[in-house]
Write a structure and sequence with these properties.
With about 270 residues, the protein is of the alpha/beta class. It has two domains: about 30 residues, no CATH class; about 240 residues, 3-Layer(aba) Sandwich (Rossmann fold), CATH 3.40.50. The chain is built from eight helices and eleven strands. The protein has an eight-stranded mixed β-sheet with strand order 4-7-6-5-8-9-11-10, with helices on both faces. Strand 2 and strand 3 form a beta hairpin. Helix 1 crosses helix 7. It is globular. The model has no long low-confidence stretch (mean pLDDT about 90).
């Protein structure tokens, strides 16, 4: 837990009797599950993904449907990681990718510290249950409770993005790995649910404070033969809460679905 700092005064913590305490006396208890809640009162989007979305994501990902993406992201991290590095998954969710990254680094013989933050307490609880070796905190990516220039590799998958805050915590020449849906990701699912399906909008890949070093498009087929898996996929996406009752009813009637997963994997280097 020494990675995290006090979200109030930005001072380093010491651990005392299962609590993190800063020199100014601000104290945060470490939960029995192994995480700490450092989200300040009044933070934007305090709740994040709810229990239903976390459970849906866990069920779908643990069934292996996104394993090609998990392996591709892990490969990018392994290519950049060095002995003694610090890796932060900003918006780690329930930890499917975070845990696999940590285990792959350990299997490669690399002593690397891996941390995760998410604004959702339900997601962090699931992440802690998945892997107790991760350092975890409930926190916002817009106010990361970490010191300046302390992260070697920052991973940001399908999560909100704050370029200025990421640049603050990353070391000079650190690596940022972003993953987000490509234009026609799950387009077949949209066709099944919406009367007028739409493609995802891709904004510029340029980021202030970062240099783009690689761009990879990953595409693979999905064949879902179970209505529960279809529901899990839908409920773990932002589409679920934006869909009309009629659209949700159409989805509920589906018993199989063939779709294509399409992602953009982008690597950046922090500019000096």
């Amino acid at each position: 837990m020494s990675f995290f700092i006090c979200p109030i005064c930005k001072k380093p913590f010491t651990e005392q009797n299962r609590s993190l305490v800063c020199p100014n006396g601000h104290c945060y208890d470490v939960a029995r599950q192994g995480y700490v809640n450092l989200l300040r009162a009044g933070s934007a989007r305090r709740h994040g993904d709810d229990r239903r979305m976390v459970a849906s994501r866990t069920a779908f990902l643990d069934a292996g449907f996104y394993q090609p993406l998990r392996d591709a992201v892990t490969g990018l991290v392994l290519r950049r990681a060095r002995q003694g590095d610090t890796v932060l998954d900003a918006g780690c969710g329930e930890g499917y990718y975070t845990s696999h990254i940590r285990k792959a680094l350990a299997d490669a013989g690399l002593s690397v510290s891996v941390y995760g933050i998410d604004v959702s307490r339900d997601a962090i609880l699931a992440c802690a249950a998945r892997d107790r070796a991760l350092g975890l905190a409930v926190a916002s990516i817009s106010a990361i409770p970490a010191a300046d220039t302390c992260v070697d590799i920052l991973v940001n998958l399908f999560a909100p993005f704050d370029a200025a805050e990421f640049a603050r915590v990353m070391k000079a020449d650190g690596t940022l790995i972003r993953v987000f849906p490509d234009r026609r990701h799950l387009y077949e699912l949209k066709e099944a649910v919406y009367e007028t399906p739409y493609e995802n909008e891709i904004t510029t890949l340029e980021l202030d404070g970062f240099s783009l070093i690689s761009e990879q498009r990953l595409s693979f087929p999905l064949r879902l033969e179970d209505g529960e898996h279809i529901q899990s996929l839908f409920q773990m996406t932002p589409y679920y809460y934006k869909t009309s009752r009629e659209g949700q009813e159409r989805l509920a009637r589906l018993r199989s679905l063939s779709a294509t997963a399409e992602f953009l994997l982008i690597e950046y280097r922090k500019s000096n």
